[in-house]
Specification:
With about 130 residues, this protein is α+β, with helices and mostly antiparallel strands. The protein is built from two helices and six strands; from the N terminus they run βββαβαββ.
Length: about 130
């Protein structure tokens, strides 16, 4: 890892989480969460965002997935915030013409994520047919 990278660990009574991110990666990912669907969704973030992402989680899955999912989200958010640093060079805008999409029928889903210092994110999704 180099550049915009970070690693964060979170230990609670219910979970032990380790997350590493490289925002300038190539989409390489590795997940050990015990939750296959969550692994799949995290893989999509890494692959399509070209973010190298490692998530290792040991949680109380015998009780419920809630704590594991929640603590992974918190830890991932902290790691991304640390990797972004002072936010220099971050642009909060996407032009569809700069991102050619080929599909049949042509359908584009543009997603804009607005991250703030708060522990939440607002996601805007626009579906467009051309």
């Amino acid at each position: 890892m180099g550049g915009r990278t970070a690693s964060v660990e979170r230990d609670t009574l219910e979970t032990k989480i380790r997350v590493s991110v490289d925002l300038d990666g190539t989409g390489i990912s590795r997940f050990v969460t015990g939750l296959p669907f969550l692994d799949h969704m995290l893989d999509q973030v890494a692959r399509h965002g070209l973010i190298d992402l490692t998530v290792e989680a040991d949680g109380d899955l015998e009780i419920d997935a809630h704590h594991t999912v929640e603590d992974i989200g918190i830890t991932l958010g902290q790691a991304i915030a640390r990797a972004v640093g002072d936010k220099s060079g971050v642009v909060s805008m996407m032009k569809l013409e700069d991102n050619p999409v080929t599909s049949s029928p042509p359908l584009v889903t543009a997603t804009k994520m607005v991250c703030t210092e708060r522990q939440w994110a607002r996601v805007h999704t626009i579906r467009c047919c051309f």
